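Support request, priority: normal
Reporter: lab tech (M.K.)
Component: structure prediction queue

Hi team, I submitted a job for Glyoxalase/bleomycin resistance protein/dioxygenase superfamily protein from Rhizobium mongolense yesterday, and the status page still shows it as pending. I've pasted the exact input below so you can check whether something in the sequence is tripping the parser. The sequence length should be 118 residues. Please let me know if I need to resubmit or if it's stuck on your end.
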Amino acid sequence: MFQLGCIALETPDILCAKDHYAETIGMSETATGHDGERYLSIGYEHHNILLRHRRAKGVGPSRLPLRPGTGLEELLGELCAIGLSAQIKSDSQPGTAALDAAIRAGASDIMALDADLF
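Reply from support: The job had stalled in the queue. We restarted it manually and it finished. Here are the results:
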């Protein structure tokens, strides 16, 4: 992995989580979505964390840019080596079929990971 693109965090208390990231890391809220989700930024991108309301805490779909030339199979092996249960999925949510096709055509600079990874 090159850097964190965006991670979706699921929480029963969005406002408490938002306050935590604002006070602990200094993140700023950049937007509120139609369903009450909150977008937080470290300062460079529109958002780095998406907070979504769910009954239980969890990790949702996330974007993790890869270093140029890193293959999906290589990343899968690295994640499994550190004890994470990971798999490569195709079309696991809307829009990922096009992403999968772009990656397989050689555009390995971005990868979407499903919550099952974590």
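Residues 66-118 form one domain. The longest strand covers residues 6-11. Let us know if anything else looks off. Ticket resolved.
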